[in-house]
Amino acid sequence: MGYEFINFEKEDSGVGILAINRPKALNALNWDTLKDLGSFVENDLPKEELRVLIITGEGDKAFVAGADIAQMSEMSASEFKEYVDYAHKIYNLIENAPYPSIAAVNGYALGGGCELALACDIRIASEKAKLGFPEVKLGIFPGWGGSQRITRIMGNAKAKELIFTGEMVSAEEALRFGLVERVVPHEVIMKEAKELAESIAKRAPLAVSAAKKAINTGSEMGLDKALELEKELIISCFDTDDRAEGMKAFLEKREPEFKGK
Ligand code: CAA
User: Fold this and answer.
1) How far is CA 133 from the centre of its chain?
2) What is the CATH number of domain 205-251?
3) Cα(177) to centroid of ligand 1, in Å?
4) Which pTM was predicted?
C-alpha cells in the first residue's frame, strides 16, 4: 500500500480499521500524514467491500493531537490555506461517504483531531480520552470543520464555552454534552468499536447508507424538503435485492444475507 503514516486492515465482516500512525507526535496531522490519510480515503480504501470504517490512532496515548503546530508555525498564508482546504476536502469526504464511520477515540483528540472525530458518524471514547479545541491558545480557532460540526451537535452556547476557553474535557464530560456517544474502559476500546461496527455491518448496507444521507442532508434542510428527501430515499431502498432478502428472511425466520445490491 505504501503509506507511512496510516495503517489499514479490513476484516471479513467488512469492517475496515484505519489508524493514524505517527505516535511519536501523538498522531498530529502534519502534511505527510494528512496526505496519506486523504490519498488513502480517496483512492485506496476498498470501498466496494467496506461496510463500516473505524478511524483510530496508533499508540496508547492519542487519537490525533491536531494539526501539526511545528509545521504550521513555518507556513506562509498560502501554504496554510492549502493545508486547510485539503483537510476540509478529506473530512467532507469522510462525512459524506456512503459507508458509516466510527471514531475510536483512544486518547487525545484535540483541534484537528477532534474535528476528524466529528467528521465521523459515531464517536466512542476511551475513559482516558481528552477532547477539546486548544486552537485559540495558538491564535487560530477550530477551522477544519470544528466550529461548524460541533455547534450542530451540542448547540452554540456549549460549543462557544469549549472553543473560547480552549480547555480539554474528559471523555465523561464529552459524553454528557453529546460530543461522544459512548465511553468505555481504555483496554476495550477497539473491541467495543469493532462490536459496534460489526452490528452495523450485518445490516443492509444500502439502507444504512440511505439513512446516513437522510440524516446528514435532511438535517441541513427545512422539514418539508427533508421529508421529501426521506421519501425518495426509502423508495429507492424498496427497489433493492437487499430489501427483498430482508423481508423474506424475516418471514422465513432466518438471518438475512445482504449483498449491498
Ligand atoms: N503538533 C505537533 N507536534 C505535536 C502536537 C501537535 N499538535 N501535539 C503533540 N506533539 C508532539 C510534541 O511536540 C512532542 O514532541 P517531542 O517529543 O518531539 O517534543 C510529542 O508530540 C509528545 O507530546 P508532549 O510531550 O507535549 O506530550 P504531553 O503528554 O506532555 O502533552 C498534549 C500532550 C497535552 C496533547 C500536548 O502535546 C499538546 O498540547 N499538544 C498540542 C495540542 C493542540 O494544540 N492541538 C491543536 C493544534 S491546532 C489545530 O489542530 C488547528 C485546526 O483547527 C486544525
Assistant:
1) 17
2) 1.10.12.10
3) 25
4) 0.97
